[in-house]
TrEMBL record:
DNA-binding region ranges: 37-56
Pfam families, A to Z: TetR_C_34 (PF17929), TetR_N (PF00440)
InterPro entries for this protein: Homeodomain-like_sf (IPR009057), HTH-type_TetR-like_transc_reg (IPR050109), HTH_TetR (IPR001647), TetR_C_34 (IPR041483)
Name assigned to this protein: TetR/AcrR family transcriptional regulator
Organism, as annotated: Deinococcus koreensis
PANTHER family named in the record: HTH-TYPE TRANSCRIPTIONAL REGULATOR RUTR, POSSIBLE TRANSCRIPTIONAL REGULATORY PROTEIN
Length: 219
């Protein structure tokens, strides 16, 4: 293990923090949440586990910060597409969101852990900071959505994005079952129980968006 010098200045600490998140992302892309350990992250960045706690006191806090990084990248991507894409129908917006989420697979895999796990072991101060950060990130995209999707009333853009995340949180685990469940689903009689995210998510999103507009448009 290579042990790096202690980061003493604020820029050095920010760079170390960014490296920790980058290494965590690499581990996350190839493993399930329960299989990523703080010890493994510490080794990859050349820190002791105790030193890593100085940046992220818990595994949940580390992955919550990773979630923020991934969500910010996704929202920036969505905002860019909405600015260029003109007016959407519920169906075309659902197709856009589905396509972009495929490009942000690490975020999709992390979303199911967000409310149920990552927010469970944090302080009230961190919770407030996180929620205010989310609101600030969602707001400009929400405003653009209210322009891009005719019939979506003002103020419902954040609601639409929140419900979108809820659908991802529910559908992704169903599309990625545990090995015993996956094996059981090979039975042809259980075909109706199989969920493929690439198919199910755009369909579910389109239904959600149609229900949220005042005058549903024809796709």
């Amino acid at each position: 293990m290579v042990t790096f010098a202690r980061a003493r200045t604020e820029p050095a600490k920010a760079a170390r923090r960014a490296d920790i998140l980058a290494q965590t992302l690499q581990l996350w892309e190839g493993a399930r949440y329960e299989d990523v350990t703080l010890q493994e992250v510490a080794v990859r960045v050349g820190l002791t586990k105790a030193a890593l706690y100085g940046y992220f006191p818990t595994k949940e806090s580390l992955f919550l910060s990773l979630y923020e990084t991934l969500l910010a990248a996704f929202l920036a991507d969505l905002h860019r597409h909405l600015r260029l894409g003109g007016v959407h129908s519920p169906g075309s917006l659902a197709a856009l969101l589905g396509s972009l989420l495929e490009d942000h697979r690490a975020l999709v895999r992390l979303i199911p852990h967000h409310a149920g796990l990552l927010e469970r072991n944090i302080s009230q101060e961190r919770a407030a900071q996180h929620k205010l950060w989310m609101l600030g990130e969602l707001a400009p995209v929400a405003e653009r959505l209210e322009v891009s999707l005719p019939g979506l009333s003002g103020g419902r853009g954040v609601e639409l994005l929140t419900y979108t995340q809820a659908l991802v949180a529910g559908l992704y685990p169903m599309s990625d079952p545990a090995p015993p469940v996956r094996a059981a689903l090979q039975d042809p009689h259980l075909a109706p129980m199989c969920v493929t995210l690439e198919t199910a998510l755009p369909t579910a999103l389109a239904a959600l968006y149609r229900g949220m507009v005042r005058s549903p448009s024809t796709d």
